[in-house]
Amino acid sequence: MFPPLNEQLDLIKRGAAEIIPEGELAQKIERSIKKNTPLNIKLGCDPSRPDLHLGHSVVLRKLRQFQDIGHTAILIVGDFTGMIGDPSGRNKSRPPMTLQETRQNGETYFQQASKILSPKNLRIVYNSEWLGKMSFEEVIKLASKYTVARMLERDDFEKRYHTEEPISVHEFLYPLAQAMDSVAIQADVELGGTDQKFNLLVGRDIQREYNIEPQVILTMPLLVGTDGVEKMSKSLGNYIAITDTPDEMYGKTLSIPDSLIYDYFVLTTNVQESDLKNIKRELGSKSVNPRDLKRKLAREIVALYHSHEAAVQAEENFDRVFIRKEVPEEIEEVTLTNSGSQLTVFQLLVNIGAAKSNNEARRLVNQGGVVIDGSKVVDPNTPINLSAPLILKVGKRKFYKVRQ
What we know:
This protein is an alpha/beta fold. The chain has helices at residues 5-13, 22-35, 54-68, 99-113, 128-131, 136-143, 148-151, 155-162, 169-185, 197-209, 246-254, 261-268, 273-285, 290-305, 308-323, 345-351, 358-366; strands at 18-20, 40-45, 72-77, 122-126, 189-193, 216-220, 332-335, 342-344, 370-372, 375-376, 383-385, 390-394, 398-403. It contains 17 helices and 13 strands.
Protein backbone atom coordinates (compact mmCIF):
# COMPACT_ATOMS: atom_id res chain seq x y z
CA MET A 1 0.00 0.00 0.00
CA PHE A 2 1.22 3.46 -0.93
CA PRO A 3 0.56 6.65 1.08
CA PRO A 4 -2.09 9.01 -0.33
CA LEU A 5 -1.11 11.35 -3.17
CA ASN A 6 -0.90 14.48 -1.00
CA GLU A 7 1.37 12.77 1.55
CA GLN A 8 3.70 11.56 -1.18
CA LEU A 9 3.87 14.96 -2.84
CA ASP A 10 4.55 16.75 0.46
CA LEU A 11 7.56 14.53 1.12
CA ILE A 12 8.81 14.59 -2.47
CA LYS A 13 8.62 18.38 -2.71
CA ARG A 14 10.57 18.96 0.52
CA GLY A 15 13.71 20.86 -0.38
CA ALA A 16 13.27 20.28 -4.13
CA ALA A 17 14.45 23.06 -6.44
CA GLU A 18 12.21 22.17 -9.39
CA ILE A 19 9.83 19.43 -10.55
CA ILE A 20 9.22 19.33 -14.30
CA PRO A 21 6.32 18.97 -14.85
CA GLU A 22 4.71 18.64 -11.43
CA GLY A 23 1.32 17.76 -12.93
CA GLU A 24 2.80 14.69 -14.65
CA LEU A 25 4.35 13.57 -11.36
CA ALA A 26 0.94 13.66 -9.69
CA GLN A 27 -0.54 11.61 -12.57
CA LYS A 28 2.22 9.02 -12.32
CA ILE A 29 1.73 8.70 -8.56
CA GLU A 30 -2.06 8.39 -8.91
CA ARG A 31 -1.62 5.62 -11.48
CA SER A 32 0.94 3.95 -9.23
CA ILE A 33 -1.50 3.93 -6.31
CA LYS A 34 -4.36 2.66 -8.48
CA LYS A 35 -2.31 -0.20 -9.96
CA ASN A 36 -0.34 -0.80 -6.75
CA THR A 37 2.86 -0.63 -8.80
CA PRO A 38 5.96 1.31 -7.72
CA LEU A 39 7.49 4.00 -9.90
CA ASN A 40 11.04 3.64 -11.23
CA ILE A 41 13.10 6.43 -9.68
CA LYS A 42 16.44 6.91 -11.39
CA LEU A 43 19.65 8.40 -10.09
CA GLY A 44 22.89 8.21 -12.04
CA CYS A 45 26.12 8.27 -10.08
CA ASP A 46 29.32 9.71 -11.46
CA PRO A 47 32.13 7.22 -10.78
CA SER A 48 34.80 9.85 -11.29
CA ARG A 49 33.97 11.14 -7.78
CA PRO A 50 33.77 8.11 -5.49
CA ASP A 51 34.27 9.99 -2.19
CA LEU A 52 30.86 11.19 -1.08
CA HIS A 53 30.09 14.24 1.06
CA LEU A 54 26.91 15.92 2.31
CA GLY A 55 26.54 17.67 -1.05
CA HIS A 56 26.07 14.25 -2.69
CA SER A 57 23.76 13.19 0.14
CA VAL A 58 21.14 15.78 -0.81
CA VAL A 59 19.99 13.90 -3.90
CA LEU A 60 20.65 10.47 -2.36
CA ARG A 61 18.39 11.38 0.55
CA LYS A 62 15.66 12.39 -1.90
CA LEU A 63 16.03 8.97 -3.54
CA ARG A 64 15.66 7.38 -0.10
CA GLN A 65 12.44 9.35 0.47
CA PHE A 66 10.99 7.81 -2.69
CA GLN A 67 12.00 4.40 -1.31
CA ASP A 68 10.30 5.15 2.00
CA ILE A 69 6.96 5.69 0.26
CA GLY A 70 7.27 2.43 -1.65
CA HIS A 71 8.88 3.26 -4.98
CA THR A 72 11.85 1.51 -6.58
CA ALA A 73 15.19 3.28 -6.48
CA ILE A 74 17.42 2.53 -9.47
CA LEU A 75 21.01 3.59 -8.94
CA ILE A 76 22.83 3.65 -12.25
CA VAL A 77 26.58 3.40 -11.96
CA GLY A 78 27.89 5.25 -14.99
CA ASP A 79 30.82 2.96 -15.68
CA PHE A 80 30.40 3.46 -19.45
CA THR A 81 29.51 7.17 -19.40
CA GLY A 82 32.40 7.68 -16.98
CA MET A 83 34.70 6.98 -19.91
CA ILE A 84 33.22 10.08 -21.58
CA GLY A 85 33.14 12.31 -18.52
CA ASP A 86 30.19 14.51 -17.59
CA PRO A 87 30.87 18.00 -19.05
CA SER A 88 28.42 19.67 -16.62
CA GLY A 89 29.99 22.80 -15.20
CA ARG A 90 33.24 22.15 -17.05
CA ASN A 91 35.21 24.76 -18.91
CA LYS A 92 37.31 22.08 -20.59
CA SER A 93 37.08 18.44 -21.54
CA ARG A 94 37.51 15.98 -18.68
CA PRO A 95 40.22 13.32 -19.14
CA PRO A 96 38.61 9.95 -19.93
CA MET A 97 38.71 7.06 -17.44
CA THR A 98 39.07 3.36 -18.14
CA LEU A 99 36.16 0.97 -17.66
CA GLN A 100 38.07 -0.71 -14.83
CA GLU A 101 38.59 2.64 -13.04
CA THR A 102 34.91 3.54 -13.34
CA ARG A 103 33.89 0.10 -12.00
CA GLN A 104 36.19 0.39 -8.99
CA ASN A 105 34.99 3.90 -8.21
CA GLY A 106 31.39 2.79 -8.66
CA GLU A 107 31.82 0.12 -5.99
CA THR A 108 33.27 2.69 -3.59
CA TYR A 109 30.36 5.03 -4.36
CA PHE A 110 27.79 2.37 -3.55
CA GLN A 111 29.50 1.36 -0.30
CA GLN A 112 29.13 4.93 0.92
CA ALA A 113 25.67 5.47 -0.58
CA SER A 114 24.44 2.42 1.37
CA LYS A 115 24.68 4.59 4.49
CA ILE A 116 21.66 6.46 3.09
CA LEU A 117 19.73 4.11 0.77
CA SER A 118 17.61 1.17 1.85
CA PRO A 119 18.58 -2.22 0.37
CA LYS A 120 14.92 -3.36 0.20
CA ASN A 121 13.64 -1.69 -2.95
CA LEU A 122 16.92 -0.82 -4.61
CA ARG A 123 18.32 -1.87 -7.98
CA ILE A 124 21.94 -1.21 -8.87
CA VAL A 125 22.86 -1.41 -12.54
CA TYR A 126 25.89 -0.52 -14.65
CA ASN A 127 25.10 1.35 -17.86
CA SER A 128 27.78 -0.55 -19.76
CA GLU A 129 25.19 -3.35 -19.78
CA TRP A 130 23.30 -1.59 -22.58
CA LEU A 131 25.56 1.22 -23.80
CA GLY A 132 28.47 -1.15 -24.33
CA LYS A 133 26.31 -3.29 -26.62
CA MET A 134 25.19 -0.49 -28.94
CA SER A 135 26.50 -0.77 -32.49
CA PHE A 136 27.95 2.21 -34.32
CA GLU A 137 24.79 2.25 -36.45
CA GLU A 138 22.67 2.57 -33.29
CA VAL A 139 24.87 5.39 -31.99
CA ILE A 140 24.44 7.28 -35.27
CA LYS A 141 20.67 6.84 -35.08
CA LEU A 142 20.69 8.10 -31.49
CA ALA A 143 22.82 11.13 -32.45
CA SER A 144 20.37 11.96 -35.25
CA LYS A 145 17.60 12.52 -32.68
CA TYR A 146 19.20 15.66 -31.23
CA THR A 147 20.61 18.78 -32.89
CA VAL A 148 23.86 20.65 -32.33
CA ALA A 149 21.83 23.84 -31.83
CA ARG A 150 19.99 22.22 -28.92
CA MET A 151 23.27 21.03 -27.42
CA LEU A 152 24.70 24.54 -27.59
CA GLU A 153 21.76 25.81 -25.53
CA ARG A 154 23.48 24.17 -22.59
CA ASP A 155 25.28 26.84 -20.50
CA ASP A 156 28.70 25.25 -20.28
CA PHE A 157 28.79 24.33 -23.98
CA GLU A 158 27.59 27.81 -24.94
CA LYS A 159 30.24 29.52 -22.82
CA ARG A 160 33.02 27.33 -24.14
CA TYR A 161 31.86 27.87 -27.72
CA HIS A 162 31.88 31.67 -27.38
CA THR A 163 35.23 31.74 -25.58
CA GLU A 164 36.66 29.37 -28.22
CA GLU A 165 37.42 26.67 -25.66
CA PRO A 166 37.57 23.25 -27.34
CA ILE A 167 34.44 21.08 -27.25
CA SER A 168 35.07 17.49 -28.28
CA VAL A 169 32.35 15.74 -30.25
CA HIS A 170 32.30 12.88 -27.72
CA GLU A 171 31.09 15.33 -25.04
CA PHE A 172 27.85 15.79 -26.98
CA LEU A 173 27.31 12.06 -26.53
CA TYR A 174 27.23 12.27 -22.72
CA PRO A 175 23.68 13.66 -22.31
CA LEU A 176 22.49 11.29 -25.04
CA ALA A 177 24.06 8.31 -23.29
CA GLN A 178 22.53 9.41 -19.98
CA ALA A 179 19.19 9.67 -21.78
CA MET A 180 19.58 6.09 -23.03
CA ASP A 181 19.87 5.03 -19.40
CA SER A 182 16.35 6.40 -18.90
CA VAL A 183 15.19 4.50 -21.98
CA ALA A 184 16.80 1.24 -20.82
CA ILE A 185 15.22 1.23 -17.35
CA GLN A 186 12.03 3.08 -18.39
CA ALA A 187 12.53 5.72 -15.71
CA ASP A 188 9.41 7.43 -14.37
CA VAL A 189 11.36 10.05 -12.44
CA GLU A 190 15.01 11.10 -12.66
CA LEU A 191 16.77 12.95 -9.87
CA GLY A 192 19.76 15.26 -10.08
CA GLY A 193 21.30 18.50 -8.91
CA THR A 194 20.28 21.77 -10.52
CA ASP A 195 23.45 21.55 -12.63
CA GLN A 196 22.02 18.39 -14.24
CA LYS A 197 18.82 19.99 -15.52
CA PHE A 198 19.88 19.99 -19.18
CA ASN A 199 20.86 16.31 -19.13
CA LEU A 200 17.61 15.32 -17.43
CA LEU A 201 15.53 17.21 -19.97
CA VAL A 202 17.37 15.46 -22.80
CA GLY A 203 16.25 12.22 -21.19
CA ARG A 204 12.61 13.27 -21.56
CA ASP A 205 13.12 14.07 -25.24
CA ILE A 206 14.93 10.83 -26.07
CA GLN A 207 12.37 8.70 -24.21
CA ARG A 208 9.68 10.21 -26.47
CA GLU A 209 11.79 9.31 -29.52
CA TYR A 210 11.75 5.69 -28.35
CA ASN A 211 7.98 5.77 -27.64
CA ILE A 212 8.42 5.68 -23.86
CA GLU A 213 6.42 7.91 -21.55
CA PRO A 214 8.79 10.76 -20.62
CA GLN A 215 10.23 10.89 -17.14
CA VAL A 216 9.50 13.65 -14.68
CA ILE A 217 12.66 15.40 -13.56
CA LEU A 218 13.29 16.55 -10.01
CA THR A 219 16.29 18.75 -9.28
CA MET A 220 17.77 19.43 -5.85
CA PRO A 221 19.75 22.51 -4.81
CA LEU A 222 23.53 22.35 -4.78
CA LEU A 223 24.62 22.40 -1.14
CA VAL A 224 26.89 25.31 -0.27
CA GLY A 225 30.04 24.19 1.51
CA THR A 226 31.28 25.06 4.97
CA ASP A 227 32.92 28.23 3.61
CA GLY A 228 29.46 29.63 2.86
CA VAL A 229 30.49 30.63 -0.67
CA GLU A 230 31.15 27.76 -3.08
CA LYS A 231 29.20 24.56 -3.56
CA MET A 232 30.50 21.75 -1.40
CA SER A 233 33.56 20.19 -2.98
CA LYS A 234 36.41 18.03 -1.78
CA SER A 235 38.84 19.89 -4.02
CA LEU A 236 37.91 23.18 -2.31
CA GLY A 237 38.23 21.68 1.17
CA ASN A 238 34.78 22.97 2.20
CA TYR A 239 33.18 19.55 2.57
CA ILE A 240 31.78 17.26 5.25
CA ALA A 241 32.44 13.70 4.14
CA ILE A 242 29.93 10.91 4.72
CA THR A 243 32.84 8.84 6.04
CA ASP A 244 34.16 11.52 8.42
CA THR A 245 34.54 10.52 12.05
CA PRO A 246 31.85 11.79 14.45
CA ASP A 247 34.27 14.40 15.83
CA GLU A 248 35.21 15.66 12.36
CA MET A 249 31.58 15.73 11.23
CA TYR A 250 30.46 17.60 14.34
CA GLY A 251 33.27 20.15 14.22
CA LYS A 252 32.93 20.86 10.50
CA THR A 253 29.17 21.37 10.86
CA LEU A 254 29.72 23.98 13.57
CA SER A 255 31.99 25.86 11.17
CA ILE A 256 29.23 26.69 8.67
CA PRO A 257 27.99 30.30 8.61
CA ASP A 258 24.69 31.05 10.34
CA SER A 259 23.08 31.85 6.99
CA LEU A 260 23.24 28.15 6.01
CA ILE A 261 21.69 26.67 9.16
CA TYR A 262 18.13 26.39 7.83
CA ASP A 263 19.16 25.02 4.42
CA TYR A 264 21.29 22.36 6.08
CA PHE A 265 18.39 21.32 8.30
CA VAL A 266 16.12 20.98 5.25
CA LEU A 267 18.58 19.26 2.91
CA THR A 268 20.73 17.10 5.18
CA THR A 269 18.55 16.00 8.12
CA ASN A 270 15.29 14.21 8.88
CA VAL A 271 13.94 16.97 11.11
CA GLN A 272 10.13 17.12 10.96
CA GLU A 273 8.30 19.91 9.16
CA SER A 274 6.92 21.31 12.43
CA ASP A 275 10.47 21.55 13.81
CA LEU A 276 11.65 23.21 10.60
CA LYS A 277 9.01 25.89 11.02
CA ASN A 278 10.16 26.52 14.59
CA ILE A 279 13.80 26.70 13.49
CA LYS A 280 12.94 29.18 10.75
CA ARG A 281 10.95 31.30 13.18
CA GLU A 282 13.73 31.25 15.79
CA LEU A 283 16.34 32.24 13.23
CA GLY A 284 14.13 35.08 11.98
CA SER A 285 13.26 36.44 15.43
CA LYS A 286 16.72 35.87 16.88
CA SER A 287 15.07 34.39 19.98
CA VAL A 288 17.65 31.60 19.99
CA ASN A 289 21.41 31.85 19.67
CA PRO A 290 22.30 30.46 16.21
CA ARG A 291 25.15 28.56 17.88
CA ASP A 292 22.61 26.45 19.78
CA LEU A 293 20.75 25.59 16.58
CA LYS A 294 24.05 24.75 14.91
CA ARG A 295 24.88 22.36 17.74
CA LYS A 296 21.49 20.70 17.25
CA LEU A 297 22.19 20.47 13.51
CA ALA A 298 25.60 18.90 14.14
CA ARG A 299 24.06 16.29 16.48
CA GLU A 300 21.40 15.44 13.89
CA ILE A 301 23.97 14.94 11.12
CA VAL A 302 26.33 12.83 13.24
CA ALA A 303 23.44 10.68 14.45
CA LEU A 304 22.37 9.99 10.86
CA TYR A 305 25.74 8.59 9.80
CA HIS A 306 26.90 7.16 13.12
CA SER A 307 24.55 7.03 16.11
CA HIS A 308 22.84 9.18 18.72
CA GLU A 309 25.46 8.10 21.25
CA ALA A 310 28.26 9.08 18.87
CA ALA A 311 26.66 12.51 18.42
CA VAL A 312 26.50 13.11 22.16
CA GLN A 313 30.12 12.01 22.55
CA ALA A 314 31.25 14.20 19.63
CA GLU A 315 29.65 17.22 21.27
CA GLU A 316 31.36 16.43 24.57
CA ASN A 317 34.71 16.03 22.80
CA PHE A 318 34.21 19.33 21.00
CA ASP A 319 33.40 21.16 24.23
CA ARG A 320 36.40 19.61 25.97
CA VAL A 321 38.85 20.74 23.29
CA PHE A 322 37.42 24.02 22.02
CA ILE A 323 35.51 25.42 24.97
CA ARG A 324 37.37 24.05 28.00
CA LYS A 325 40.66 23.97 26.03
CA GLU A 326 41.50 20.48 27.22
CA VAL A 327 43.25 17.67 25.36
CA PRO A 328 40.89 14.99 23.91
CA GLU A 329 40.45 11.77 25.91
CA GLU A 330 41.47 9.70 22.91
CA ILE A 331 44.61 10.93 21.20
CA GLU A 332 46.79 9.33 18.57
CA GLU A 333 50.12 8.23 19.96
CA VAL A 334 53.22 8.30 17.76
CA THR A 335 56.56 6.77 18.63
CA LEU A 336 59.57 8.00 16.68
CA THR A 337 62.54 5.71 16.19
CA ASN A 338 66.03 6.52 14.92
CA SER A 339 65.23 10.24 14.90
CA GLY A 340 67.98 11.42 17.19
CA SER A 341 67.31 13.53 20.25
CA GLN A 342 66.14 16.60 18.32
CA LEU A 343 64.10 17.48 15.26
CA THR A 344 62.84 20.74 13.84
CA VAL A 345 59.09 21.30 13.93
CA PHE A 346 58.60 20.92 10.19
CA GLN A 347 60.63 17.69 10.20
CA LEU A 348 58.46 16.32 12.98
CA LEU A 349 55.24 17.16 11.12
CA VAL A 350 56.45 15.34 8.01
CA ASN A 351 57.84 12.36 9.94
CA ILE A 352 54.54 11.61 11.70
CA GLY A 353 52.40 12.24 8.60
CA ALA A 354 50.76 15.43 9.90
CA ALA A 355 52.03 17.19 6.76
CA LYS A 356 52.68 15.71 3.33
CA SER A 357 55.75 17.82 2.58
CA ASN A 358 58.22 20.24 4.11
CA ASN A 359 56.45 23.11 2.36
CA GLU A 360 53.07 22.12 3.76
CA ALA A 361 54.61 21.79 7.23
CA ARG A 362 56.12 25.26 7.03
CA ARG A 363 52.82 26.68 5.79
CA LEU A 364 50.95 25.12 8.75
CA VAL A 365 53.37 26.74 11.17
CA ASN A 366 53.30 30.12 9.43
CA GLN A 367 49.49 30.10 9.53
CA GLY A 368 49.54 29.52 13.29
CA GLY A 369 48.19 25.99 13.02
CA VAL A 370 50.81 24.17 15.11
CA VAL A 371 50.78 24.10 18.92
CA ILE A 372 53.15 22.10 21.14
CA ASP A 373 52.30 21.55 24.80
CA GLY A 374 49.90 24.52 24.69
CA SER A 375 52.32 26.96 23.04
CA LYS A 376 51.91 28.13 19.46
CA VAL A 377 54.94 27.50 17.26
CA VAL A 378 56.06 30.55 15.24
CA ASP A 379 59.22 29.23 13.58
CA PRO A 380 59.15 25.97 11.56
CA ASN A 381 62.87 25.51 12.26
CA THR A 382 62.35 25.44 16.02
CA PRO A 383 64.19 22.42 17.45
CA ILE A 384 62.19 19.94 19.49
CA ASN A 385 63.48 17.99 22.43
CA LEU A 386 61.87 14.56 22.53
CA SER A 387 63.50 13.44 25.77
CA ALA A 388 59.98 13.64 27.19
CA PRO A 389 56.60 13.02 25.46
CA LEU A 390 54.88 16.08 24.03
CA ILE A 391 51.33 16.94 22.92
CA LEU A 392 51.20 18.25 19.36
CA LYS A 393 48.13 19.99 17.96
CA VAL A 394 47.93 20.47 14.18
CA GLY A 395 45.11 22.57 12.78
CA LYS A 396 41.87 22.69 14.73
CA ARG A 397 41.21 19.02 15.38
CA LYS A 398 44.34 16.90 15.05
CA PHE A 399 46.17 15.92 18.23
CA TYR A 400 49.20 13.68 18.63
CA LYS A 401 51.09 12.42 21.63
CA VAL A 402 54.67 12.13 20.42
CA ARG A 403 57.32 10.13 22.20
CA GLN A 404 60.68 8.68 21.34
